[in-house]
Write a structure and sequence with these properties.
By secondary structure, this protein is mostly helical. It has five helices and no strands. Helix 1 packs antiparallel against helix 2. The chain is flat, with a radius of gyration of 22 Å. The model has no long low-confidence stretch (mean pLDDT 90).
């Protein structure tokens, strides 16, 4: 049994962007080895991205046939998009991730990840600061032991703290 769902604001544009990205990735996969043989280096990436293109086209067809979701009275299409697709917590978490990526080189893996975990827990609704600090520390201790000791992965120390942390 197939039930139809309403089309969200901006969903058609998103599916078109998804198809464009998939086509770009297919071209990139093709440029790896130009499909010389089924066992060439680019064969699996081309297959995977071709599946992305086909499923993107199927989703675009379903999206085009779907009825638009009703908005709030007097709400513009842009306001519907912002409310439904880009809620504040998503935007905040995306910004936190971008800041984390920027600080990773400067502060190193341990300090940047610790700050990111604490901030992420707060952004996602946990207001127990002491618990957030403790869980973040324990999580990073486990990650450090596993990756640094067991797998011998060298974690970035950061340029600002070089020589201060192990």
């Amino acid at each position: 049994m197939h039930t139809s769902r309403p089309r969200l604001a901006g969903e058609r544009v998103f599916t078109l962007l998804l198809i464009a990205f998939s086509l770009f990735m297919l071209w990139q996969a093709y440029s790896i080895s130009k499909f010389e043989s089924i066992t060439s280096a680019g064969a699996f990436p081309m297959f995977a991205t071709a599946v992305m293109v086909v499923t993107g086209l199927l989703i675009a067809g379903q999206t085009a046939r779907a009825q638009a979701a009703p908005g709030l009275p007097g709400e513009s299409l842009f306001n519907q998009f912002v409310r439904q697709i880009t809620p504040g917590v998503l935007v905040s978490f995306t910004l936190a991730t971008a800041v984390y990526m920027g600080l990773l080189d400067k502060l190193g893996f341990l300090l940047a990840s610790y700050l990111f975990l604490v901030v992420s827990m707060w952004l996602l609704g946990s207001r127990r600061i002491v618990l957030n600090l403790l869980v973040s520390a324990l999580s990073l201790a486990a990650i450090y032991v596993i990756f640094q000791t067991v797998f011998s992965v060298v974690l970035p120390t950061g340029t600002l703290l070089k020589g201060l942390l192990p």
